[in-house]
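For consistency, the fold was encoded as C-alpha cells, as this record shows:
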Amino acid sequence: MWKVVGAAMIAVAAIGMAGCRTAAVYDVVDAPVVGPADGRKLSSEQVRNAIIRAGTGLGWQVREVQPFLLEGTLHLRSHMARVNIPYSTERYSIVYKESDNLQYDGKMIHSNYNGWVQNLDKAIKANLAYP
C-alpha cells in the first residue's frame, strides 16, 4: 500500500512541478518615457526608434502597425510571442497579443514569456536614456 501512496505522491508532485512553469501574463502598462539625464524631451520618432533598437537588439522583429503602435514578434526555438507596443512621447506599454507553444490559457503563460517582456522593457528604458 505504501508503494501505491508513494507513487501517487510522486505523480502529484510531478504534475505540480509541470504547472510551476506558467505564470500570470506580465504586461507593461503606461511606463513613463524617461529620456536622457539632461532632461531633454524625446520626440515621438526618437521614442519609436528607441523601442525598435531595443527589440531588435534582443532578437525581436519590430514593425510599425500604425502611427504610435509597434508590434514585436519573438521566435525562440519552437516558441513565438507577439506583443503590441503602443507609445507616445510620455508613455509606452508592452501588451500580450498572441503566442504559439507557450501554454497560454487566457490568463497564464509559460514563465519564460514574462522574462522576455521584462528584458524588452529594460532594453527600452536603456535605449530611451541614450537616444
Summary: The chain has three helices and seven strands. Helices lie at 2-19, 44-57, 111-129. The first helix runs from residue 2 to 19.
